[in-house]
């Protein structure tokens, strides 16, 4: 628990301290957001707002994670390092996307093919890596299986598992990116998801098969360190939200959204809660589904289901205030997170 607290506190401090000078630096070099021409009219005022704030989220989280281990004189685990690799790697892909947008003064960055290649390289490296590095008990950071509250079903071939993991990584990183359309929306929703993984990691530690070999124990390799990773990013996101809350002084950009999406999937895979992620990140799933429904309906019928997709912009065009949408969507995400944690604890309820 001390490591979790130190990681969160340190990353929060770093994020809060680095954000103001980064905002000034981005303003100085005119590294501002390029707003879509077809977006809501109210977004025109956000043109030029500094972006790439995800840099500080990543720096804060990395310093918080490794600083926690240094403070406690402990060694980072294979699981923690692999999730951090996925987090930073996806952030690098997002940084290239943001930089191209700013440099070329357009709302589109990397070509879809190049972006997919970058995500694939990082995702495949992570997916293969989590099946390696067994500890003294033979537990690897993840098993090549599907999981809900724990692993289930027969093991997958390594190639099939890598494809499945890559599907989750690309899908969820883009889901967070789609959610990042209103001030503070994606950041607040991510914070709630990370709270869930701090709780899950802590509980899996207490019920680990390493501590007591029972029929209901968890074979998660490094549950405590995964909770430390989640808390480090959680602290950095809280520090970022201070400046990203409406009206935002800075946006996370693809640097932050791709990194955070990849991180959440990394935690889901290594804590063996892949399908539970549909609830832990319920808001991201709903917003992504709204885009899929909109595109499918328009292509098949020529009609739109929503006034605009993603879903948050539909409510903007209906006249809802931005802060109203953000807070109500946070409430929805909080309810999803509570349901997910309830299901996670369900098997431990007395019968």
Textual characterization of the structure:
The chain starts with a helix and ends in a 5-residue tail after the last helix. The protein has one domain. Strand 1 and strand 2 form a beta hairpin. A two-stranded antiparallel sheet has the order 1-2. The protein has 351 residues and is mainly alpha-helical. 66% of the residues lie in helices and 1% in strands. Belongs to the glycosyltransferase 4 family. MraY subfamily. It comes from Nocardiopsis terrae. One of its GO terms (molecular function) is transferase activity.
SSE order and pairing:
Blueprint lengths: L1 H27 L25 H19 L5 H27 L7 H18 L16 E2 L3 E2 L5 H22 L5 H22 L16 H22 L8 H18 L6 H4 L1 H20 L9 H7 L4 H25 L5
Antiparallel strand pairs: 1-2
Mass-distribution shape: globular
Order of helical and strand elements:
HHHHEEHHHHHHHH
Query: What is the share of helical residues?
Result: 55-70%
Which residues form runs of ≥5 with pLDDT under 50? none
Query: What structural category do the secondary elements indicate?
Result: mainly alpha
For the largest beta-sheet, the strand count, sense and barrel status come to: 2 strands, antiparallel
The number of distinct β-strands equals: 2
Note the beta-strand portion: under 5%
Number of helices: 12
Question: How are the strands of the biggest sheet laid out side by side?
Answer: 1-2
Average pLDDT figure: 90
The total domain count is 1
- How far apart, in Å, are the first and last alpha carbons? 30 Å
Q: Give me the Rg, rounded.
A: 20 Å
């Amino acid at each position: 628990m001390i490591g979790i607290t130190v990681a969160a506190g340190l990353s929060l401090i770093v994020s809060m301290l680095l954000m103001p000078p980064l905002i000034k630096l981005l303003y100085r070099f005119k590294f501002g957001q390029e707003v879509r021409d077809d977006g809501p009219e109210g977004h025109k005022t956000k043109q030029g707002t500094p972006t790439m704030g995800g840099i500080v989220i990543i720096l804060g989280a990395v310093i918080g994670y490794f600083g926690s281990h240094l403070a406690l004189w402990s060694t980072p685990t294979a699981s923690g390092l692999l999730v951090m690799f996925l987090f930073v790697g996806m952030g690098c892909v997002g940084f290239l996307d943001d930089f191209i947008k700013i440099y070329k003064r357009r709302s589109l960055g990397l070509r879809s093919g190049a972006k997919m290649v970058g995500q694939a390289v990082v995702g495949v490296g992570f997916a293969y890596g989590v099946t390696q590095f067994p500890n003294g008990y033979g537990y690897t950071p993840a098993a090549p299986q599907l999981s809900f509250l724990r692993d289930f079903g027969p093991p997958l071939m390594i190639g099939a598992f890598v494809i499945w993991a890559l599907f989750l990584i690309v899908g969820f990183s883009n889901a967070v990116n789609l959610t990042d359309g209103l001030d503070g929306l994606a950041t607040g929703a991510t914070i709630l998801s990370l709270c869930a993984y701090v709780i899950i990691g802590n509980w899996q530690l207490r019920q680990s098969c390493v501590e007591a070999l029972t029929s209901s124990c968890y074979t998660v390799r490094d549950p405590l360190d995964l909770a430390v990773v989640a808390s480090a990013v959680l602290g950095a996101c809280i520090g970022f939200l201070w400046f990203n809350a409406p009206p935002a002084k800075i946006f996370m950009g693809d640097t932050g959204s791709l990194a955070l999406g990849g991180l959440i999937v990394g935690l889901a895979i290594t804590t063996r809660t892949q399908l539970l992620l549909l609830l832990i990140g319920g808001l991201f799933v709903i917003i992504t589904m709204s885009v899929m429904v909109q595109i499918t309906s328009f292509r098949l019928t020529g009609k739109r289901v929503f006034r605009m997709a993603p879903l948050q912009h539909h409510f903007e065009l209906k006249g809802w205030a931005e802060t109203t949408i953000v807070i109500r969507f946070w409430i929805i995400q909080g309810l999803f997170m509570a349901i997910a944690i309830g299901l996670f604890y369900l098997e431990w309820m007395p019968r």
